[in-house]
Write a structure and sequence with these properties.
Elements (H helix, E strand, L loop, with lengths): L6 H15 L3 H15 L1 H8 L9 H15 L6 H8 L2
Length: about 90
Amino acid sequence: MSAESNPDCAQQRRQVHLLIDVLPEEKLSAVHTLLEVLIEPLSRALAVAPVEDEDLTAETASALDRARASLARGEAVSHEDVLREFGS
């Protein structure tokens, strides 16, 4: 049964819209995120997924340091350059 054919659901939907309309601006982002998580299964799965606690190896730490230093020197490759080289 769709919201349009269920008067209680339609009324709830109207009330939710009214609440969003009067929501303080600083809380809008939180509600937006919550609605995305409720609607998109991947967003929900990512939001509730446990954080993996992996040890950072010396090799990975070194690679990250080199990458950060490269960025600090302005040696980054733009997204546009990557697309131009490898196609979109």
